[in-house]
Design a protein that fits this description.
Helix content of chain A is 33%, strand content 19%. Chain A is of the alpha+beta class and 446 residues long. Chain A is elongated, with a radius of gyration of 28 Å.
Chain lengths: 446, 446
């Protein structure tokens, strides 16, 4: 090019992932799969604006506050100051609470909703940390009280999703379930005062060795004996309802908080007994958010790589939206950290490769005179629900090369002249056969 | 509730629409429909981050700059200043240009992509103006040159989408096509110097009466005769290729810019002759963006309400990404203003009402003892690809009322006790029949 023009060479911004079309195609498959399973359980979708009033989302005073992105118009003026300050949402739970409060009279309870949107967090630039990422959340909210069987529906849904993600069928996952009442009740029974510190230590039972855990527990001011009892509870992992009920048998029948937690956990495990062995495990080291959850809690790990961290977490809460409405709204929910989950398949390089197009068929033509019949053929095939790309033109050889590069599985040859048959070529077998566009269907993938 | 708690009553923020689940269900259907048609033509999807470097998107110095939302972390510190300033994208074209430049070596050309994301513009709060809205874009980009038949593919795709939107089948739409070379060539031929002002006036031919247009044209300094010739061209509306070729016959065969535009427009109209009468019209008052488009231009209106404005616009450009890469990348694209389009069905109150759930069936149970068989039944039905909600529990009457409120079309009654049959009730007919969950299928909607 002869003219001289200033070129700004763009480069990726840390934390904002972006995929080439072949990778995006798989990401779409995953999102479609998740949506289909959510809907198969009758959950409705909502979408909230990416932007909320800062006052709504920053009400918590928690750590996340410093990661909130606030917005300002590039050329802000006096009028802007009269409006509420706006910010990007950092999760879908706060917006859900605001949504339920705002639309309370228009919702049908139990309100079963799923939500799959991007959220933003202004974290430090760091490899593997996303600042824009997808969450796929599912929650059930009810007024005043919510039946416990919903606590079992969450892991059933998640298991179905994660055990059949395209390209990840070989990856073993496990959902770990606990009930916060058990540990809290136990600490109460033991007379432990510094419960929050102790809970934080129990959260590390999987990561640190036992002596280290005992040492940390003693540092909080409790005796070695008590520390050992706590460690024993924290190390409990069982899969059958009967074994859940055997946790701390000396507590049975006391009507205590711990007993309540054990019975709830046993009920949830019982409801999930139809899942394959190892799919779910009752694991009392699971603690999750300190203030928010009040009963069942979930984490989900890759069995062969628990250090990757939880890819799907959640739990039961007593009170979703009391910041925004004077109603008691208990709920249970779980959130798939979609972008971290998707990063896994990229990390393992298991991505089904090569498809740069959703097309099933490319219709080609030896020269532009055939464009009319080629267009007609493409439209017939589309009418049958197939995705059909019409070749851009140019030499036939180049058209075929483009189809192959894009990974399009069939090439369609309309007749060169009237009276000749159509032909279609299966790119995987190389076989080329006569075909009628009105009748033809692709082979089912095995 | 006895405790006293500060409640922040949330209210909608102007320009950030949010729907209840019944409306969102229709919005999803529309988005799914659009995606399906885009893919049926073999276009691949890309998604770019909502956030770009401000330097990338604000490079233009155009009016839109003042509407850009820039971001800042709530608790920004010195480190933040070392990073690029970030902003929300205001369209999908600038991000596409940046994307194509950045991933140039990994893309397959002609690059046919669709993109359906939200964009943000910090407009003044005003009824009917969105500050967060969906755009559904489709573009084809090639290196050095791009065949003209793609200019005809755009309206064919858009026609298929807009003529079969669920709930909008009765709304007549029309795609209006012109070619900027015609008017520019004509003005050149007439020796008009103040072309930009004249083009802005021609853009109003549909809205103002002829005398007003002539008056405005004369005000730019041209003679009454020239004004009348320009008006005549601007008022040209024809539907057949032959009539396009008759525009300004005195210009035929001159090889001029105008002649080129007429031939291109005639070719595009000819390629679209299979569409129903009135679907597309060659309308020389269509002008669009002054600097960007170089050939074919499109607008789309509701025939019964052209004042609603264009719901889908675009055109051909010579040079997508020369700000970011030293390549000539011509393209043609069109963008559905999805949120404005969707606002139409809400405005007309044509929304298919009542469905608050994607469920085909609700499985109910007279009491909790049936939960086991009800769960099993639900899983069998889901295994057949149906969406099934399991009732929350409580009194049967309340379960049925919930199903009805949600608009779920079938109620499933598992057997009360072993040996009895399953039954299913069609809520539209009221008919209740025995059924086997492994065999049953819902009636096809007519």
């Amino acid at each position: 090019m002869s003219e001289k023009k200033k070129i700004y060479k763009p480069s990726p911004i840390s934390g904002f992932p972006e995929w080439t079309p072949d990778v995006r195609l798989v990401e779409q498959q995953w999102l479609d799969h998740i949506r289909a399973v959510f809907e198969s359980y009758g959950y409705c979708n909502i979408e909230t604006p990416a932007i909320e009033a800062l006052e709504v989302i920053a009400a918590k005073g928690e750590d996340v506050d410093k990661e909130i992105y606030v917005l300002e118009r590039l050329q802000a003026d006096e009028d802007d100051k009269k409006e509420a300050r706006l910010a990007l949402h950092f999760d879908q739970t706060v917006p859900l609470a605001r949504y339920v409060a705002q639309h309370f009279n228009d919702l049908i309870f139990p309100f079963k909703r799923y939500q799959m949107q991007k959220v933003w967090r202004g974290e430090r630039p760091q490899a593997g940390r996303f600042r824009e990422f997808y969450q796929c959340d599912i929650d059930v909210i009810n007024v005043d009280n919510l039946p416990l069987h919903f606590d079992a529906e969450m892991p059933a849904i998640i298991w179905q999703i994660l055990s059949s993600l395209p390209g990840m069928e070989d990856e073993k996952i496990q959902i770990r379930i606990s009930n916060r009442k058990i540990l809290l009740g136990w600490l109460e029974h033991l007379g432990v005062e510094n419960q929050i510190d102790v809970i934080r230590i129990v959260d590390k039972v999987e990561k640190l060795d036992s002596n280290k855990i005992l040492h940390l527990l003693e540092e909080t001011g409790i005796t070695r004996d008590t520390a050992e009892e706590i460690l024993k509870v924290g190390q409990t992992k069982v899969t059958r309802k009967e074994d859940v009920l055997k946790i701390a048998p000396q507590m049975q029948g006391t009507g205590s908080l711990m007993q309540e937690g054990i019975e709830e956990l046993a009920f949830v495990m019982d409801q999930l007994s139809h899942l394959p062995e190892g799919a779910v495990v009752a694991d009392l080291s699971i603690v999750r958010g300190l203030d928010y959850y009040t009963g069942t809690v979930y984490e989900t790990v890759f069995v062969d790589d628990p250090g990757y961290g939880s890819i799907c977490s959640g739990g039961r809460y007593d009170d979703l939206a009391s910041n925004y409405i004077n109603k008691k709204l208990p709920g249970v929910g779980i959130s798939i950290g979609f972008s971290r989950l998707f990063a896994r398949i990229l990390q393992k390089q298991q991505l089904p490769t090569g498809k740069h197009s959703p097309a099933d068929i490319m219709v080609v033509m030896p020269n532009e005179e055939q464009r009319g019949v080629a267009t007609e053929t493409a439209n017939i095939l589309r009418g049958k629900g197939l995705n059909v790309e019409l070749a851009h033109g140019g030499k036939l050889k180049k058209q075929l090369a483009t189809a192959e590069k894009k990974g399009i599985p069939y090439i369609w040859f309309p007749p060169f002249e009237d009276g000749l048959p159509h032909e279609v070529k299966d790119m995987s077998s190389g076989e080329q056969t006569e075909a009628d566009p009105a009748q033809w269907t692709p082979k089912k993938e095995s």
